[in-house]
Amino acid sequence: MPSSRRAFLKTFLSGTGCFAAAAAFPFAPSEPARPNGDADVHFPQGVASGDPTPDSILLWTRVQRADAPTEHPVPLVVQVSRRHDFGTVLAERALTVTAASDHTARVFVHDLPSDSVLFYRFLAGDGAAASRRGRTRTAPSPDADRPVRFAYASCQAYEAGYYGVYRTLINEDKEAPPEEKLDFVLHLGDFIYEGLGYGDARSVPPFPSGGQHGEGTPHAKTANDYRHLYRTYLSDPHLQAARARWPFLHVWDDHEFTNDAWQSAATYDSGADSAQSRKVAANRAWFEYIPARLSDHEGDEGGTSHAQDFRPAEVTDAPLDASDRTGLVDEPNNRAAVESMSIYRNFQWGRHLELVLTDGRSYRTPHPVPPEINQKLSGSDRYLTPLKAVEVFDAGRTYDDGHPPETIEIGDQTIPNVRRESAPGSMLGDRQKEWWKNTVARSTATWTVWGHGVPLMPMRIDLGAVDPDAQTVVMTTDTWDGYLTERRELLSFVQDADTRLVSLSGDNHNSFAGLLHPTFESAGETPIGAEFSVCGISSPSLFRAFVQAMSDDSPLRPLIAFDGRPVDLDVEQVEALNLTFLDGAKASATAARTGNLDQAKEAGGGPNDHLSYVDSNAYGIGRVTVDARGVDVELITTPPLVTPQRERELEVTRRAHFTLRPASGSGTVALEGPEIEGEPPFPFWSK
């Protein structure tokens, strides 16, 4: 065994609830490890696998006994087989799970055959009860010349709806020929939501701690609260079935900890609420319930990995200075909470896919415009922020070649430049950013795919086109549009490295696609890649949120939605937000006045020329194929599923297909699409 593998196993086995097993030549399983049924032992959250490599996989389950106190340990056996019936077994390992990990088990199985479909199950220690059978697969070797197929998902608020799109994906995958089946599922975060009140389709039982936050809605505070959320979310049969069918690769976004988080700060009130104890609790529960291989993650050959298993940390909730944008706030409790776990890592799947996964929360500096100032400008903490304010505040002391203004004029308001002495903002932090650059530069894969929580492309609204007293606004500064300096730095690095980049993101509850440019600031820039941002599985769509927030008599209402019947469009509600993003505010205003889409587009010309597609009232999932020729992406939109269903797949409203190819001459890539199958969204239809 290589010394690196010995070191990994030593570290892995020291983790809470972690075990390792080595594959061997096939053998017949021992007699005690045959299930005969025992209703007192069950596996209520199913099984899962994650982070496959060519010769290893991480397996997961949670066990529960009805006939013993919850603090009692439970003996298990895990088996891995090439055969569906487990007639022969590649690996078998006895283990014991305890209350310390909420009776979850993480089992690392190594020395497996590459690029292989495998089956696994967990048995109670005496063989009396068995988990459901899991199906997984190992990755192809780095030199394998074959397509890689995977799905990607984001944002699954349990209260807002059911996860039927997973069932659609499963049924389609079962019908696909072997060479077209999915290899894995990439989950981009918001796997759980830390608070209550995100919908009314179904309910989350009260938190063990009570979870009350002042006068606000309850949210998770303790490790048991976060565990309670994972147990509840994983009761969904469609999610259980998906985790049992494919290995998952995970990153988190904000709601695994707290809404719009940065470092160990929550943002419910001041934008910098002390939440170090919650950060540690959230990290612990994520580690227990998400099958991610972290400590001594091997990455690619020659690379450095900073991924690290959860380590308990004793912390006190201490105030954080939200004006400090110099990097990781050097407060001992903040540093201990953030460093209790690290999840950014990379995977190479054959010759054509380098998958780079980052953490956009734990190391980011505070949002560029302080919430109290943003409230004065837009009436919101982080939404609809004037672009000018973002540009000045984010750049800090580097603005205008080191000559930042003391104040900023926004309409009739004079705003003090409180970031005048600050460093530029960062979403990745220094160490993660250096690792990201090294990984991107070192990759030999045909395509580098960046999986991360929040969108990279700008999503702006040119309010000045319809209101002379208004300006172009950034939809939200919680995305990369709030961290302009670092985005320019990273995309310029990609351009210099001559890398073809594909960004896969989520968080914003709408699906959109377009080309990536180094700065997004000047016409004629060479595209360096593309982004495909996916809507939520169940979380309320961006369009729905805007409609609910905007009064019917607001002069800006036509930029979001309008009644099509007065202008001879045969729909009660036109989803104008799509057109506003694609062609500008004036285009939507013209469409609302005339109903003439051609005239509307001619009048438009907004700030988002890089966009090719927007579906703002979407629920669903994405599917990707990567090979030597290019990257094919399918954005799948479904209706919101607010009533339970079992085996029947969820109806698909539309599929938007895109193809990204290497370009010759003027650019590094060329984007084809969308080709829309099914009912197209406005403005991709006309009267």
From TrEMBL:
Top-level taxon: Bacteria
Residues in Phospholipase D N-terminal domain copies: 45-138
InterPro entries reported for this sequence: Metallo-depent_PP-like, PhoD-like_MPP, PhoD-like_sf, PhoD_N, Phospholipid_Metab_Enz, TAT_signal
Gene Ontology molecular function terms on file: alkaline phosphatase activity
Pfam family for this entry, one: PhoD_N
Signal peptide: 1-23
Domain (PhoD-like phosphatase metallophosphatase) ranges: 150-544
Alphabetized SUPFAM superfamilies for the sequence: Metallo-dependent phosphatases
Protein name (database record): Alkaline phosphatase D
